[in-house]
Model the fold of this input.
Amino acid sequence: MTHVALVGGGVIGGGWAGRLVENGFDVRLYDPHPEAERRLREALENAERAWAQLTMAPRIRGVASVAPSLGEAVRDAEVIQESIPEDETLKRRLLAEIERHARPDALVCSSTSGLLPTRLQADMESPERFVVGHPFNPVYLLPLVEVVAGEQTSDKTVERALSFYSSLGMKPLHVRKEIDGFVADRLLEALWREALWLVHDDVATVEEIDDAIRYGAGLRWAQMGTFLTYRIAGGEEGMQHFLAQFGPALAWPWSKLTDVPELTSELIDKIAEQSDEQAGGLSVRELERIRDDNLVALLQALRTRDYAAGAIVKAHETRLFDAAGSGTEERDPARPLKYESVVDPSWVDYNGHMTEARYLHVFADASDAFLREVGIDAAYLGRGHSAYTVETHLRHLREVAGLEPLHVLTQVLGADEKRLHLFHTMTNARSGETLATAEQMLLHVDTAAGRASPWVEPVATAVTRAAAAHVALPVPDGVGRAIALTA
Ligand SMILES: NC(=O)c1ccc[n+]([C@@H]2O[C@H](COP(=O)([O-])OP(=O)(O)OC[C@H]3O[C@@H](n4cnc5c(N)ncnc54)[C@H](O)[C@@H]3O)[C@@H](O)[C@H]2O)c1
Done:
């Protein structure tokens, strides 16, 4: 599946475009907004910037364009994602119109934040192919998407939606009971209502309320949610103790329940003024980038822990690496493997150049690319085999600037039953100038035993073949160098 239509290109439609393009889908977007092209371009720029930082996994980016009419956007699409304003009448009318142009087998999804799918699908000719796929802003970074079926939605449609969203590196949550607001927005609305009361009653400013979340519970929510966090808060006796201790307080209650403060013009002005002050003159674009950089940092931290949203990023990345490794493109095995990268601006240090540790980062990625080529994939790792780097000699030959395009050529100097001797040469991809080299020894290991072990098939044969194919290559300058004061 490669072609997706997006109907509505605002905050959410633009976010979908970013996630889809970063994952190799071609997108046709329809939005009558006069600046639809500019808004799409800016959303794609944000997504590209975020994904370039998020993962080095090899990806083919898709192409997105604005269609002149609804019909042209949806005609060939396999999936159609509607993200127009939250208005039931408008959405129902649009869904019926989408069906007049769409392929009969196209999946039709709505980004609605909480309208009931049974009502949205009521005027459709083929309501069984409709489902809600409710994402979270920014769609290109947050993995969660709530999948909610209406009464007429078929099981097959739900399955297709779950598998489509998973293929985009998302975490689809199948909401089994159709309720207003689904699961996530029910929780968010309760918090939002209390926050409005606290401002209304002059208990706290908007900034103080945000601080009450981001310095405390927000950090817990990002990785464990509410129930697991409270289980731990119950101490050794766990959840039962927690409920016994804090349960009675729920009846007092501290919060305003479903009572809503009236959004008078005074309250709206008060919130807007405090919000302007909190933003400190930063534009929405600037705030989006701060948010995205922080989200990338959080996702990466959780990825190293293989936990919560980080586990989704890690699994998706593994799939992308494996897909690239199994590419059908024939490569001449007698030539060094070429790995391509680009210097992320955040790798630049106080000297204005790529910081020294990032040289090793790039070479380590080049080694990983070679290991994938010889067959070390998720299945091989899952069987308890891997290769660890045990020694590296790095030569920094020239300063490397931010955003500089890089090529790394990887040559096999030798291999035996447990070891692999590699030499990497990093060049500027445009000028060909040599920037750095790295000589590395890698050791094959049995990861469970934590010991060196012989290569296992099919990797053993591939390593031997690669070493034999490279034996005729000239020995690169710098091989076997050690640090010394003499030249
Ligand atoms: N903003 C969020 O945080 C968020 C999160 C999850 C889901 N949603 C849901 O996503 C949907 C879109 O929300 P949004 O925040 O992107 O709104 P938005 O106002 O930013 O964007 C809506 C877009 O739809 C376009 N549009 C209006 N009528 C159209 C039509 N007939 N055909 C094509 N395009 C049309 C508008 O020009 C606009 O660009 C809503 O259902 C909303 O509930 C929003």
Observations:
- Residues 284-304 form the longest helix (21 residues).
- The CA atoms of residues 24 and 61 lie 4 Å apart.
